[in-house]
From TrEMBL, chains A, B:
Substrate binds at T179, R205, H255, N282. The lineage of its organism: Bacteria, Pseudomonadati, Lentisphaerota, Lentisphaeria, Victivallales. Pathway: Amino-acid biosynthesis; L-lysine biosynthesis via DAP pathway; DL-2,6-diaminopimelate from (S)-tetrahydrodipicolinate: step 1/1. It comes from Victivallis lenta. InterPro entries: Diaminopimelate_DH_Ddh, Meso-DAP_DH_C, NAD(P)-bd_dom_sf. This is Meso-diaminopimelate D-dehydrogenase.
Amino acid sequence: MKKIRVMIVGYGNVGRGVRLSLGKNPDMELVGIVSRSPERVGKELPDVPVMAISDVEGWKKAFRPDVAILCGGSKNDLPQQGPEFAKYVNTVDSFDNHSRIPEYFADIDAAAKASGHVSVISTGWDPGIFSLERVLGGAFIPGARAYGFYGLGEKGGLSMGHSDALRTIPGVKDARQFTHAIPEAIERVRRGENPAFEPGDMHTRECFVVLEEGADREAVTKTILSMPGYFAPYKTTVNFVSQQELDEKYKGFPHDGLAIAVGETGDRHAARVEYRCIWGSNPEATANVLVAHARAAARLAGENRSGAFTILDIPPAYFTTLSREELLEHWM
Amino acid sequence: MKKIRVMIVGYGNVGRGVRLSLGKNPDMELVGIVSRSPERVGKELPDVPVMAISDVEGWKKAFRPDVAILCGGSKNDLPQQGPEFAKYVNTVDSFDNHSRIPEYFADIDAAAKASGHVSVISTGWDPGIFSLERVLGGAFIPGARAYGFYGLGEKGGLSMGHSDALRTIPGVKDARQFTHAIPEAIERVRRGENPAFEPGDMHTRECFVVLEEGADREAVTKTILSMPGYFAPYKTTVNFVSQQELDEKYKGFPHDGLAIAVGETGDRHAARVEYRCIWGSNPEATANVLVAHARAAARLAGENRSGAFTILDIPPAYFTTLSREELLEHWM
Ligand SMILES: NC(=O)c1ccc[n+]([C@@H]2O[C@H](COP(=O)([O-])OP(=O)(O)OC[C@H]3O[C@@H](n4cnc5c(N)ncnc54)[C@H](OP(=O)(O)O)[C@@H]3O)[C@@H](O)[C@H]2O)c1
Ligand SMILES: NC(=O)c1ccc[n+]([C@@H]2O[C@H](COP(=O)([O-])OP(=O)(O)OC[C@H]3O[C@@H](n4cnc5c(N)ncnc54)[C@H](OP(=O)(O)O)[C@@H]3O)[C@@H](O)[C@H]2O)c1
């Protein structure tokens, strides 16, 4: 069978995860990587073809991708790269700026429809799998609210966005932020209260901060605790650690979460659905989901579909290599 | 908005659940019930139009259903009713005889394609939601096996099929069977062993049996323990109880389950996904899922699709009443 030719756009944590994931999906092959810093990437991966992202005619000809997996950042890269790449090729991305998804969908949809490509946006685990589970929970238990909790394990879950926010503070040399779900909040949901939470009711935030020499602990703490949106609404703890301690004890990208919906069926019988995921590496897990969606994008494109799609618009069978016969026989 | 006109075919536990569920889904209305025992049903529901299942021209004219939800038994009713009703109307059913699903799919597909109808088969929680979660687990974590466990709670989950099997034994007046997951087996899966289980490694079976007067306890016990398929492969316990005790302590249709897949992403990082559901009433939960699929069936029919579908063939957005705009804005 002809393999699906996948190109990676932007090589950071998720890009790395996509490369590794493609190695475990025998129906796909990595045909090349494009980056704004091709030297950096070429040095890391001497055996993989790497080209400059701007050399559109070059990579089109050299890589002939069926699907491009966009691994740029949601804040600055994807809003520009998404609609741009949708002109040239079928795309998949993990755009996770929740409040901007409608706008991003519209931009990509216009570009992809005009060029006749398929663009699957905002997939990964949240948005992505969790979006799907929330929608299923709401559909199968009418009246139930769907909640997302993060960082249920002992260590909590590393939040990249909040870690980045800490690192913008003057005096902070390095930092990582772990999110913790509040167990009592989960219990209230499980009991079927369907509570109206403020963000601070569901999660706490734990910061590990390495200071620059001579920086003022109290000033940094104050800045963190009063940061609107990021930390002000939450019970936040700030711990100062050495760079070595940060690198050894708080390394990696572990994350985990719970999507949950609780309500009643028919004659006042309790009904509860919970989706739980635990990832040793958040970007690798995101990458795995992106790769499965690349398979779906190729299939949708093969049906001459075009425009923007989310995980909610795709029949689940499109994510697997399994045939209808195999699915009916072994997976139903 | 015009409501989706739903007809119930066959009125037992699931049929009752569908009636109650329709009351909670304002985009649908119950237009009538057809049954092989219309008097029985009419007596239970004096305010609902009920007709004989055999009066095809009659119910077609009186009810004009958009979708028929087939609530007959999987063993004897659906193999006949499914392909028959697919001739007349769009259908949804919860056919759960796993090994016969390929055959059932083919029969219904042929009938529905010939008549131009949509037939969604084998949906509910298992097959149904669990099928979906197994496929997603396998697609997002390549190499992970997907497992289904049932009866994780203290009381276990009531198995209708196994209760029916007990009631066929001479000397048994009434009986109910509760399935229990084996916690150690779940722990092995969680640890990432991806074990090859025999059925008896995953579950135990607990029987509560009311004997007929004068029946022989030991003979009944022996018959149960040696029943191939149903009980012989499992660690099974048999408890003899009075009818009163059965009716009071072991009533209702509670069930629960866990679909789980464990593997690794990229660079040897653990990855685990778990879908857990806990139903106070199994037939009501099944009914809720059937009703959401009736919405999807109506929508697929509106797109002039035809033939057999499973949950794996349907974009998840089709299960909800939410518009694309609402989904993008609040549910991603
Ligand atoms: N939906 C979800 O569940 C989910 C989960 C996790 C992440 N995400 C999204 O995924 C996005 C990417 O995450 P990420 O962790 O991969 O971000 P990242 O490591 O910062 O990479 C983002 C981009 O930055 C550039 N870059 C990376 N390392 C660099 C370096 N050393 N020097 C210069 N440039 C470098 C790369 O572009 P060039 O190669 O072009 O330089 C890369 O595409 C996030 O913004 C987030 O929105 C979504
Ligand atoms: N996929 C899943 O997750 C899932 C879960 C649960 C159940 N199921 C399936 O759903 C099917 C139906 O389950 P159920 O619990 O609703 O079965 P049930 O109560 O035995 O009803 C099955 C049929 O029996 C007839 N019936 C019911 N009560 C009767 C009575 N008192 N006297 C005479 N006839 C009666 C009804 O047909 P008439 O009205 O025509 O007489 C009804 O359609 C099961 O076979 C199972 O396969 C699937």
